[in-house]
Description:
- Helix content is 39%, strand content 19%.
- It has helices at 13-21, 50-53, 92-101, 129-161, 166-174, 181-190, 199-213, 228-235, 247-258, 279-295, 300-311, 346-353, 355-359; strands at 2-6, 34-36, 39-47, 63-65, 68-77, 104-110, 216-221, 242-244, 262-263, 272-273, 314-320, 338-341, 361-366, 372-373, 384-389.
- Helix 1 runs parallel beside helix 9 (247-258) and helix 6 (181-190) crosses helix 7 (199-213).
- The structure holds guanosine-5'-diphosphate (GDP) and magnesium ion.
Amino acid sequence: MLLGICGKTNVGKTSFFSACTLVDAEISNRVFTTIKPNFGVTYVRSKCPCKERGVTCKPQNSKCVDGVRYIPVKVVDIAGLVPDAYKGRGLGNMFLTDIMTADALVHIVDISGGTDINGNPCPVGTHNPLDDIEFFRREIDYWVLGIIKKNIDHISKRMIVNKEKLSEGLYKQLSGLGVSTEHVERCIEKSGLDVNSPEEKFLEFSRTLMEDSKPVITAGNKIDIPQAEEIFNAVKDKIKDIIPCSADSELALRKAAEKGIISYMPGGGDFEIRGNATEKQLAALESIRNVLKNFGSTGVQKIIDTAVFSLLEMIVVYPVENEHKLTDKKGNVLPDAMLVKRGSTALDLAFKVHEDIGKRFISAVDARSGKSVAANHILKDGDIISIKAGR
Ligand SMILES: Nc1nc2c(ncn2[C@@H]2O[C@H](COP(=O)(O)OP(=O)(O)O)[C@@H](O)[C@H]2O)c(=O)[nH]1
Ligand SMILES: [Mg+2]
């Protein structure tokens, strides 16, 4: 799974990326978990079953801090989007190609209205963040439309010569975007498209296709700027899935925690001063405390969690070998927390653990009830499952 952090220049994409990937040694093995320059690892939070089961867990693929499981998720900091990127302006197509590899997008917007459409700073409150939402969608939709337009003659020819369906032709051109044939078919139907439709119909098709396949959460960033809250309140009802955030504050808190100045857990609603801090640092920290008081948290972790659990509809499942001891082969208790799509079955989990285990699946045991469940049993969030596979 990959989350793409995107938006205009100067809105705080890199700050958001740095904040969410800067993880305390307690959670991550490496301090700064950047894979490649703009690829990193962040974590979603979920309640670990260890407390409820009265066991001390020994996580292998994730970390547990005080009963909270931190499960790794990859993120990419995508180059700034400029108007007309779909025509190749700026980093244009590279930007859009990067977007397509992500499963969900975090669209960072400067909610203080202090960044103009080209990504240049402007006086706070002079740019309407709603324009950014519109522009963002437009760039993506026109880009998809461009791919279709470039190939439509070819698709049309194959429909005549090879008796291919429009959906097959479109699917071949757009499969790189992570869409399925069924999905393309559904969107063709929804937008009433045929091969001779006018351009607007193809645009409508592109929009429907992207809305369904690339969920977007909007981060109303720079909420710490005094006028930002008012702007946020004025636009929030017009934007689907928007969460206020302050990437700068989250980054400052994680850095201070790393230096031992404060104790703070990502996503927390407060922090405690621990070590020595200069007066300037203390003043900065106190103003961040106000942001936390006002909004409950800096919003960064909430955005990551919402993207994964709400937009991508993931749940957390704990596969174990021994359903009594909740261990793997080596005796590690609750070793792995796996993110699976809501609606996944016991058999899906088996395949996710290992293809071989999936192929040799016999049954599964729900560790909480001790009962055997069938291959088509739908998993619930927090389930602990032992898979029984044949030889
Ligand atoms: N006040 C405030 N400024 C921020 C916040 N996040 C980023 N910035 C500032 O916005 C500017 C651009 O940030 P950057 O992360 O480089 O943006 P990018 O171009 O989108 O990657 C920098 O001066 C940041 O310090 C925030 O949450 N609050
Ligand atoms: Mg940047």
